[in-house]
From TrEMBL:
Organism field: Arenibacter algicola
Localization annotation: Cell outer membrane
Name used for this protein in its record: Outer membrane starch-binding protein
Record-annotated SusD-like N-terminal domain positions: 101-241
Family named by the database record: Belongs to the SusD family.
Keywords, comma-separated and alphabetical: Cell outer membrane, Membrane, Signal
RagB/SusD domain segment(s): 282-554
Amino acid sequence: MIKIYNKDSYNSRFLKLLFLGILSLGTIVSCDKELEQFPSNAFAADNFWTSESNANIALTGAYRGAVEYSTQVVPSDWWTYCGIVFMEFATDNAYDRRGDNSTQNRLTNGTLLPNNNVINGYWQGSYKRIAICNDFLENIEKVDMEQAKIDRMKAEVQFLRATQYFYLSQFWGSAPLVTTTLTPDEANNVDKASKTELVTFVENELKAATAALPTFGELKAGEAGRANKQAALAFLGRLYLGEKKFPEASAVYKQIIDLGDNIIDPDYKSLFTPANEGSSENIFSSQYFGGQAGNALPQHAYPAVASGWHIVNPLGSLADAYGFDDGTPLSYDDPRFDYEDMGANRDPRFRYNFIWDGATFAGRIYDCHPDSSGSVDQLTYSKQATRTGYGLRKFFDESFSGNLRTDYGGNIPIIRYAEVLLSYLEAELEAGNAITQQLLDETINAVRGRASVGLPPITETNAAALRPILRNERRIELALEGQRLWDIFRWGIGDEVLVGDFWGAPFPNSTLYPTTSKKLDPQSRWYVTTKNFREGVDDVWPIPESEVNVNPKLGN
């Protein structure tokens, strides 16, 4: 099977995929109107690029890429809820209730193989979007429309294609660099490009896109979800951080800051719900529409008491990274820590992001205590319930009452301004520049000092001492947003944080804990799993076995 999509198979698939669900591109196209005028089987490749209307449909397809709606267990695209949130299962942030044999867990537990269906899903999703983008860029100039519109569309598609090569460069290193549509023979014999070649391509494409894209502030009403200058700069900043080009990263992030379009929103919790997903803190997001292109994360992550499958389980190592509300680190021995209410006296983001035993979620009491044998959410190794003693609150409007698989329309952020500020500080620190209190106040303190969080300011200006503070802040601020694994890889800390036993919440007064937890802990934390990350192996993904079987050159 040809997995790097070629022009002979691409057009019919692409045109059918468009109508399975449309991303929020506002004034680009009215999907209902286009569906009525152009049934999904009415297009032919030789007469498609004939109108602005069709160009808009093609652009929508480039934004959608390989995104699938309803429930997923394996990512079809980097930007599905499955591709973003479930990526955390491979980290020290979360655990997949499906168990140690979950292929997300296998990414970093020492058992990663080339037949892993998660890496195959990301790989196929990347090349599917790349094929759509290549076809678009080869044909858009044929359309009789204003050149300014063509130029903007081309910049958007350049951005979308560059993001895919960014991911390929960061997770695989070397991979085919395909910039034109391919015949079947060409696709089956494509060579790998080096990581240097991929990085250079991404850098050049993002710079070109940045020059032509409108700023975030210039997006018109109804254009939510479209690429903007800040989004392209942010991905360029990520590229520079990943390649340890810290002065370049600093300059790029400073451009975003100086544009002045984005803010740190005072209300952290609402950023991840439909009520405030349009905040100017959310620079670029995966777009969902309830009932048409729904976000099924509620079905996967809600607790059983709320009819969910409880797939997403934050680990104790992440929960414990949230300190007390005066900014001091967490300690179970501190009298402020309350085993009966683990959200008390904590960094408010702990309460916004998680649920724990005795917490209220969607108007229901979440009872996950190991002794609560009558609860559907009892902490065990067998129920469709938590495996850690924690559940997910982030991303959810708890007043939602529709179908958990199809009706929720909440977006998921891909780029937030909080990331920009924390990345700017990291770039300055790693570039060896002086850290001033003003810099801290403009970056990390702006993030942790937002009104709904209100933590005291950081005053540490020594680089070596600030580094772990900044890395922890990034971890807890961006928790479950799909960035932790990349951070672990680029920081080279997998052998520190992804090796050994992982634990959940503590239950010191549990009667059943001593006989039900598979391992016992002096602090009475529930045993979850053990990881054995292999440095130099698991931080560079193997090209999927199915691809190498088709084209052995990819295995070299």
